[in-house]
Structure formats: C-alpha cells, structure tokens
Amino acid sequence: MNLDDVARCEIHPTIGIARVGNSPDGFFNGPETPGVPPSPSGGFKDADGRIKRQAARFRMYGYDRAGTVLGELTSAEAQIVWTAELANAKGEWFKFAGRFHESTADSNRRNQHIDPTDPAARARLVIRPGPRSVTGPSQDGTDARFDTGTFLGTPVPLGELRTDEAGRLLVLGGFGTSASVKPANPLSHYANNDSWYDDTSDGTVSATVRLSPDGRQVPVTSARVVVAPPDYANGVPSVVTLYDVALEAARVSGGLPTPPEVSFTRDVYPLLARPVALAWVNKSARAMHGDPRRNFLTPARLARLSSNAPDDAVARQAVFKRLRKPGLVDDVSQANAGFMPVLSGDDGDAQPNRPRTWLALLPGQYARMQRWAAGDFLADWTGVPAPIPFEAIAPADQPHALVRAALETASGGGFFPGIEMTYIADQQSTWAAPFRLREDLVAGDVTKYMALPWQADFYMCMDHWWPASRPDEVLPEPAHDGLVQDAAAAAFQEWDRGIGDGENAEKGMNEMVEKWSTLGFVVGRPGPSGSPMLVETERNRP
Fold first, then answer.
1. What is the pTM of this model?
2. Each residue of 266-283: pLDDT tens digit?
3. What is the torsion angle, in degrees rounded to the nearest 10, for the CA atoms of residue 416, residue 226, residue 499 and residue 96?
4. Are 482 and 422 in contact (CB under 8 A)?
5. Stretch (H or E) spanning 273
6. For 51-78, what is each residue's pLDDT tens digit?
7. Are the CB atoms for 221 and 9 separated by under 8 Å?
8. Where does the record place the L-lysine epsilon oxidase C-terminal domain (predicted)?
9. DSSP secondary structure of 366-423
10. Residues 6 or more apart in contact with residue 65 via CB below 8 angstroms
11. Are 306 and 297 in contact (CB under 8 A)?
C-alpha cells in the first residue's frame, strides 16, 4: 500500500464481540474468519479450570479518496492510539418485560429505591469508568484497565485494553462477577434484580492515526464492542444469527442491495445445516434431526434438497411447509411445536396458541426459502465451502469478513432479551449504516436492556431458547466413544446438571452465579465412523 493514497481509515469489525471469563490471565481472540469458530490453545479454560475471556480484536484499514480498501495498517505503518470506553447501565435502565410489554415510565425503572427523578443519584447505578487508551505493539493492559467504575459505591472492574504484536487493539471484558451490594438479597427474577450488578458491558472503539514517516493524521471511523456472556457451544450457530438480523436490517433500509437470485449454497444450505447442528445441544432438535431419516444433510436427502428439478419439488416443499411464517400475531395455527424452529421467540417462553412466543425465520430468509421450495433458485451446490484463511481473504473483503465472523456466532433471536443484544438489533433506528450502530449510542446503551445479572436468565432459559450459546443437553466426552448420534440419546445429559436441579428457580439462578464457570464447552470430535460429533468437554463438576 502507498501510504500517500490513504485518505481515511476505518476500524473493523464494526461491532466486535468480547466475552467474560474468570481466568485472570488466560484469553483468546474471538472469531475473525466466517465459518471458523475459535479454538483456543489448551482449551477454553486455563490449567485451574477457569474460563478464558474472549477478546474482541480490532484492526485498522486504510481507504483512498474513492472509498477503496487499500489494506490493513499496523504499528509498522502508522502510530495508532486506540481509545475505548466500556460501561454497564443495566441497573439504571427500565425493567425488562419483553419488547411487546415495555414501559418507559419512571415507575418502571430498576432500583426504585434510588429516586428515578434524581439524575445524580441514578448515575451511581451506572458502571462507567471512562475511556482508556493504548498504543504500540504487545501492550499487556496494565495501564489501560477499566477498574475505576462503581455500582452504588462498590468497585466493578469491566476489563482492560491490550494490543497484539502488530499493535492491533484487544478489548477484554469483565471476569463474570455478579453480586448484590445489599446483604441477604438473593436473585428472584430472570431479568430484574435490584441492588445487583454484573460486569458485562458495551461501548465505543475509536483511534487516532498518524501515518509514517511524516506523521500525517487521517480521520478514523469508529466501531463498537459488546461484552457478553461466554459462548459455551462455539461451533454451533444459532438458527437466526445476529449477522442475519443486521444484514436484513441493512437490506430493508436500502443500505445494501438484495441479491436478485436465491443461491442454495449461500441462502438455503445454512438454514438446513443449523438445526442439524442444534441436535447436539437441544433435545427437540435431536428428536427431529438426530434421526437419519429426518436429517437434512444425509447425502441422499441433500441431493434432492439442493436440486431445482421438478421431480424434487415434493422434497423441498415438505421442508418449507413446516417453516413457521414470520410476523404472525392473531393466526395461532402455527403457534405449536409442529412448525420450525421449535424455539422461543420475542414474547416469552414458547406456548401453544401464542404466535409471538415462537421463533420464526426473518422475513427475508422466509421469502428466500419460499422461492427455493418453488424451484426458483440457483442449484449451485458442490459441497460445503471450505473456509478461507483470513490471510488469504482479499484486503477489500477483510473488513466485512471480520464483522460477519463476529456476528455469526451471536444470537439473532429470540430476543427475550437475548444473549449479546436484544430486539433493538432488528430496529432500523438502531443502525446508522449497514453493520454500523448509531454514533449517538453512548457506552452502555446496547447492553442496558439485558438481564441483570446475566446468570439469572442463563439459568432460567434452560430449554428451547439459545442452545447454540447456552446448551440445553449435551453428550459428555467420555460417553461418546463408539456411539452414533441417534443411538446416543440415553447418554445425553443436562448441560447445567448440578445447578438448581429443578428444586426451584431461585436456587438455580443463585447457584448459576456461583457455578457458571464450572460448566462445560461443546467442541467437535471425530465420531466412530469418522463423521464429526459435538461433545461436552472441560466440565469441572462431576
């Protein structure tokens, strides 16, 4: 790259996802290549069984005056001073009740014992340590810690900034600490618990760039970071991902064009493969797709589903007619487990005859599947596309690859409230441009809707919610030897076994606060026939 051609810079990914962990030093970088989940050296836990934090890594890209990506800038080409701000505003925000039942009345704010009409008093409920900056390669975070924020006077560290060997920014979040500042105050609600805090967060990522060797400064477009709970099943994508939601919002707004054709490989195959993967972490998906006769990906069935020949229309239409139509409110005919996905939606736990409590594909996804069922698609299937190593991705495509990799591992529903973001993700007013959040959203504005603390919701949503992040049932690693998935049903166990164990919700939520880091991670292993299996590993508890 000719540095004289650099007119401006952008930080990518536009939204990075970091995740909490209780290992004091261990961390790994989040996914950066679409289709390639993280695989930390030594596993997701350190030698003492503590969960490593997932860092969100940000890169700087140079653009010319025409808006063409010239390539990545590192500390070898420029002096980059990174600045980020993290905040947690959950305690000051309104109680979560679901997108259809929210109230913005002061009487509905969390922590009513702090006068809702007194801004100065309410500010003590926001953990806001202020911005931190870091520059140069291999910075260890010592001088850029978010350790001065407090919740009602109690210090709550939110993480730190580091850099890698090339000077790229690493944002590390909190350690999964959740507690009440009020003694003898156990959790009693899945989302709203007064006097409680946690150390998830979100915020802005900005920078100043001075190009070498003359120190010419160029403008920089900022990015965002979200610090979320751990993803305990990194290799299992959600049926609807946060990337899908952001892409749909960009197309509906006109910010991105919608491709005129439907591609089986690009548009249809992922929506067939994802529920099959869920069979490793969810009982309902296993009952349906763990059976080879109902598995979309068996060679004979996939051959028919990927064909647009008239003779294969019956096979395609048999799948499509089971897809739940999005946007149903009064039509209760599909509000049951006879339609897919068999997961909960934006209005609470899935219940018969309540359409909005059931997850559906996004309208754009459903429309593409409808065209597929009718045979109006490109039959371009040649096999699962091999992931391209990041270094082999063309520089012009790297910025989008980074945001896609980050958001494809995040949940796009049901938003009750969700894992990383809630229903604001599918609102046009949330976005300033494709995959770019509004600039007037201050640190804490994205995660303030989420459950307080996150462990309460994590325990309560133990079935048909977000099994791609919070597994429902798993196959423990020692039990998978010699088994095939459909013959292993008896070997599957509850992922959160040993926590609550069904005694009562309050006991389970409070034990999740204490024991979340003892739970296992779901990873890929070769099965007895050479086919991949997903099994639970690194569980600390018997």
1. 0.96
2. 999 999 999 999 999 999
3. -30
4. no
5. helix 269-278
6. 999 999 999 999 999 999 999 999 999 9
7. yes
8. 346-473
9. HHHHHHHHTT-SB----SSPPPPPGGGS-GGGHHHHHHHHHHHTSB----SS-SS--G
10. 7
11. no
